[in-house]
Design a protein that fits this description.
Layout (H helix, E strand, L loop, with lengths): L1 H21 L14 H34 L18 H29 L9 E8 L2 E6 L4 E4 L1 E5 L4 E7 L4 E4 L6 E4 L5 E5 L5 E7 L11 E7 L1 H12 L10 H12 L37 E2 L3 E2 L2 H9 L19 H12 L14
Parallel strand pairs: 1-5, 4-10
Antiparallel strand pairs: 1-2, 2-3, 5-8, 6-7, 6-9, 9-10, 11-12
Helix pairs in contact: 2-3, 5-7, 6-7
Protein name: Cytochrome c oxidase subunit 2
Keywords: Copper, Electron transport, Heme, Iron, Membrane, Metal-binding, Respiratory chain, Translocase, Transmembrane, Transmembrane helix, Transport
InterPro entries: CcO_II, CcO_II-like_C, Copper_CuA, Cupredoxin, CuRO_CcO_Caa3_II, Cyt_c-like_dom, Cyt_c-like_dom_sf, Cyt_c_oxidase_su2
């Protein structure tokens, strides 16, 4: 009796825990609330396969219960042998044909959706972005626009944006659950997909392929704005003055330290700097482009965007993202020096079109 009660309690606790965890999540980081064409296609397939699997489960359980009740052993019939159906051709045809039909019902829409989402026949007419996956950050070059940025990908709503993806190191996977499906990012070949967001907003992206100790921290954002705001953002980024003097003395000191401590060897503060080619022969920039760093919503892709977190990142990036390529690439800095550099970076705000204006 105690054993039965104990199992019931465990089942009850796990059921409550499952219901509680089902309500956890981050807005704009779910495939169950599609806000883009690719995510909508995926959701249609999820619903189709769930309905079919649920139907199969219900039919099997009904047959199981009927069999359990009707053909159970009854008192006085211990030696009764029911009619055998072994070799029944009708049954064998039924349980062979029906699964084949169900597989086809799932496979055909899946294949059609796969080819649809991989169709790049209209790429030359629309926005194209070369995407570079790195441990553990993302780099974006807008083809034909002379614009480069990292971590935040700006796109216009209601328009397809073609992404040509390549890795500079290991295999990554580009995934923005709310607006698109996944695509592997390899070092040997360019994979192409397109994304399209219906509504303005900040959509969280993830690397969906285990790529090292900080794989789970390889976050990025897709900033969807109106076409008019997107054109304004493009114009602002194309007219960045990388030599502009910071607003205050602390930031000016930070700019000098940024240049003196080899930061410029890895990071650009000019949106047109350090061209990236879609091919394994060119690994692109070693560190993220920082042209619009002050406009971003996260430090290192994961921390709240404030000076304190930025200073912590500069002082000890390894404690935040183990295995990152920034660790050990510059001389040790004092707290004051790190704060000056942080002050300078937070002033890199070339545009009024930001994640906040998109509804972050």
């Amino acid at each position: 009796m105690r054993g039965w009660m104990g199992k019931t309690k465990v089942f009850f606790v796990f059921t409550l825990l499952a219901l509680f965890l089902a309500g956890c999540g981050i807005e704009n980081l779910t495939a169950l609330e599609p806000k883009g064409y690719g995510a909508e296609k995926s959701m249609d397939l999820i619903i189709l396969t769930t309905l079919i699997m649920t139907g199969v489960f219900v039919v099997v359980m009904v047959i199981y219960v009927i069999t359990l009740v009707r053909f159970r052993r009854k008192k006085g019939q211990e030696d009764y042998v029911p009619k055998q159906v072994e070799g029944n051709h009708k049954l064998e045809v039924i349980w062979t044909v029906i699964p084949i039909i169900l597989v086809l019902v799932i496979a055909v829409p899946t294949v059609l959706a796969t080819f649809d989402l991989a169709d790049d026949s209209k790429a030359d007419e629309l926005i194209n972005v070369n995407v570079k996956g790195n441990q553990y950050w993302w780099h974006f070059e807008y083809a034909g626009e002379e614009i480069q940025t990292s971590q935040d990908l700006y796109i216009p709503t209601g328009e397809r944006v073609y992404l040509h993806m390549l890795s500079s190191d290991v295999i990554h996977s580009f995934w923005v659950p709310s607006i698109s499906g996944k695509m592997d990012v390899n070092a040997e070949n360019v994979n192409t997909m397109y994304i399209e967001a219906y509504d303005e907003g900040v959509y969280w992206g993830k690397c969906a392929e285990l790529c090292g100790p900080s794989h789970s921290l390889m976050d990025f954002k897709v900033i969807a704005v109106s076409p008019e705001e997107y054109d304004e953002w493009v114009n602002d980024m194309q007219n960045v003055d990388a030599d502009a003097e910071p607003e205050n003395a602390v930031a000016q000191e930070g700019q000098e330290l940024f240049e003196a401590n080899n930061c410029m060897n890895c990071h650009a503060t000019d949106s047109a700097a350090s061209g990236i080619e879609a091919g394994p022969q060119n690994n692109g920039p070693f560190g993220p482009n920082l042209t619009n760093f002050g406009d971003r919503s996260r430090v290192a892709g994961i921390l709240e965007h404030n000076k304190e977190n930025l200073v912590d990142w500069i002082m000890d990036p390894e404690s935040i993202k183990p295995g990152n390529k920034m660790t050990g690439q510059y001389p040790d800095l004092s707290q004051d020096e790190a704060e000056s550099i942080a002050e300078y970076l937070l002033q890199l705000q070339p545009s009024e079109i930001t994640p906040e204006s998109a509804g972050d």
